[in-house]
TrEMBL record:
GO cellular component: cytosol
Keywords: ATP-binding, Nucleotide-binding
Biological process according to GO: galactose metabolic process
SUPFAM superfamilies xrefs: Ribosomal protein S5 domain 2-like
Pfam family, one: GalKase_gal_bdg
Transmembrane segments: none
Keyword match Nucleotide-binding: yes
Residues annotated as domain Galactokinase N-terminal: 51-98
Name of protein: Galactokinase N-terminal domain-containing protein
InterPro entries, alphabetized: GalKase_N, Ribosomal_Su5_D2-typ_SF, Ribsml_uS5_D2-typ_fold_subgr
GO MF, any single term: ATP binding
Length: 236
């Protein structure tokens, strides 16, 4: 390789590494912040649900799932590589209310459109379909299919509003795992399912595979489930 080309490639690589280090440091500084999720964030997403669907405030709950920083091993987990990760005080909030029907209807405060499907016939991922972004509903469908594939009976759907932490919408923070966990917890709560953290790790791995078509290391999801929880309505 010519020397000038080698220098150019090396320079680009070093810039990319430096940018990633700076981004991780910003997120790392916020990892121990006591502000997430704040009461105002919880109140905002619950209010958005009540306004959008007329849900009874007494029946609204919020699932919270944090993002993660991955100093070593980001994305090589897709190939079974080792992962070091830490959960952050940033993440996904999903306000939801159980329904007496199998219908699922969800909107996002970050993306346009509405996701609607029945648990009796969850749409499968189409070949070439890309998950995330404008197709954010793929994670909700993936969570429902993961539960069904593992033999869980989910007959009650949900109405929901989902949102991510502002300013943390870049790559490398495992947002896909976070939103998948949030949907899993919501479906489980709506259907009175008591599922262990270990089982939810496997369910979220299946959810990600169903949604994106990519397999992943269980360690990625283990970091997520260590910090996920249900937020009761009395936090308002």
């Amino acid at each position: 390789m010519p020397k000038h080309i080698f220098k150019a490639v090396a320079g680009v690589g070093l810039c990319a590494i430096a940018w990633r280090i700076v981004a991780k440091r910003v997120l790392w500084k916020r990892r121990d912040s006591p502000s997430w999720p704040s009461l105002s964030e919880i109140d905002a997403v619950k209010s958005a649900l009540i306004e959008a669907y007329g849900a009874d405030a007494a029946g609204v709950q919020v699932a919270a799932a944090p993002y993660r920083a991955c100093p070593l091993g980001a994305h090589i987990d897709h190939q079974g590589g080792p992962v070091t990760a830490v959960a952050l005080q940033l993440g996904v909030l999903l306000a939801f209310a159980p329904q007496d029907s199998p219908q699922v209807v969800i909107t996002s405060r970050d993306f346009e459109g509405q996701v609607a499907f029945s648990l009796d016939a969850v749409p499968e991922r189409r070949d070439g379909e890309v998950c995330g972004g404008a197709n954010w509903g793929s994670y909700a469908r993936g969570a429902a299919m993961a539960l069904q594939q593992r033999g869980y009976q989910i007959r009650r759907g949900i109405v929901g509003v989902v949102q991510g932490s502002p300013g943390a919408d870049g790559g490398g923070i495992s947002s896909s795992a976070a939103v998948g966990v949030a949907f899993l917890l919501a479906f489980e709560k709506a259907n009175d399912l008591a599922i262990s953290a270990e089982e939810n790790i496997e369910l979220d791995r299946i959810q990600h595979t169903v949604s994106s078509g990519m397999a992943s290391n269980l360690a990625r999801w283990a970091q997520k489930l260590m910090r996920c929880r249900m937020l009761p309505c009395n936090l308002l």
